[in-house]
Amino acid sequence: MITTIAIAGMSCAHCVRAVFTALGGVPGVSRADVSIGKAVIEHDGTVSPEAISEAISIAGYEVADQRDDRRTLPVV
User: Fold this and answer.
1) What domain range includes position 25?
2) Between residues 69 and 12, which one has the greater pLDDT?
3) Domain assignment present for 60
4) 27: CB partners within 8 A, 6+ apart
5) Which of 1, 21, 2 is nearest to 61 (CA)?
6) What is the mean pLDDT of residues 42-51?
7) Measured between alpha carbons, how far is residue 47 from residues 12, 29, 53, 73 in Å?
8) Radius of gyration (Cα) for the chain, nearest Å?
9) What's the rounded Cα separation, in Å, for the pair 42 and 15?
10) DSSP labels for 15-53?
11) pLDDT digit string, tens, across residues 60-75
C-alpha cells in the first residue's frame, strides 16, 4: 500500500532526514521517499495512520494531509 502525506513545517535537508529517519522506525514501512513538505510511504497495510502521524510528530513536524492509495499491482 502507498500513503502520500503532506507535511507542514519542513524547510531544509535536515527536515527531510529527520522525517525519513522517523518513518524508518515504524514497523511495516518498507520504503519512504521524503522531500520538503511531502512523503510517499510504501508499507504492508498494517501500519495505522496514527502510527505514521505520531512518527512525523516526534520528528517535530505536522501532518497536513494524508491519503491512502490501496491499489496494488498484480502479481505475475
Assistant:
1) 2-69
2) 12
3) yes
4) 46, 47
5) 21
6) 91
7) 27, 7, 11, 19
8) 12
9) 20
10) HHHHHHHHHHTSTTEEEEEEETTEEEEEE-S---HHHHH
11) 999 999 998 866 556 6
Q: What is the CATH number of the domain that holds 9?
A: 3.30.70.100
pLDDT over 90 (residue 34): yes
Q: Into how many domains does the chain fold?
A: 1
Give the pLDDT confidence of 22-32 residue by residue, as tens digits: 999 999 999 99
Q: Residue 74: inside a domain, yes or no?
A: no
* 63 φ, ψ (degrees, to nearest 5): -75, 120
Average per-residue pLDDT for the chain = 91
Residue 75 lies in a domain: no
- Do the domain assignments include residue 22? yes
SS3 67: strand
